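Hi V.,

You were right to ask for the full record rather than a summary. Here it is.
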Amino acid sequence: MMRLSTLFFPWLTLACSAAWAAPVYFTDPITNVIYSYDSVTLQGGLFASIELVNPVNGIACDKFGNVYASARNFIYRFTPDGVRTTYFTGTTQYFEDLVVDLSGNIYAYSGKVYKITPAGAISVIATGFMDGQAPLACDSAGNVFVGDGVAGNVTRITPGGAKSSFSTGLQAGGLAVDAAGNVYVADRGNGDLKEYSQTGTLINSSTFPANPFSNPTGIAFDVQGQLYGHAPGAEIDRLDAAFHRSLFIKVPNASDPVGDIAIAPIPEPAAALLLCSGLAALALRRGRSRPRWPHNFPVPPLPASPQSQP
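Predicted structure:
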């Protein structure tokens, strides 16, 4: 007998992805703040302020919608409604970019690539990079991509720790992976946007708009397959699935640069089921035919914060 979840979850995920208005987060490394804007209504503003003298370097979202931000030797964790906790305090690290895989592991760059598990264990998984500010990306299989602009290449690190060259001859300012596993590189050195297959074969570069994003330090996909990045004119633009470019928002402080960009994913099926069932109950209780989506999801307990570098 086929399980109900086998029939229900794919339709639930499809319905939620069509309706899901994902928050788009981006950092301002000058004023040390994070902004959040709704990808559909474009409403938003200040999400959180890092009350330190340290710049906010990288941000990433996990599958529950939590936001992680690196600021010097700290990694902070924000719930979707902005409640902040200190997730990790380093000793000698100066964290730049970071990403979170589907298992909840955090990968952070500080000359080396560090892995922090949900249980709080920290380890170094790759060394030998030349760039002090290398961007990171992660695919659904758990492969981590590192853009070394000084060496002019992108490196892939498998979940087992194997390190190999993925692409060469470029200066990666931002990395992102689409739903099909293709890797996109915002190439600052050549002023274009490149698309690579999962094996590292260049698929496209000439059909993309010339220099669609200005000196990017982060690019990101939403669940509809739209790619976001910092564009000329103090704005964040997005490219749709057909690579048509449009304005997303003007940057609130036009004189300040945009740092990293992250977009909250659709909740995983189990979380989405819990969310939708709660909404249905709320609608029946209040007599609403169209319940509103709340801003936050169920979140896992915060793991212990490791206190020292291995």
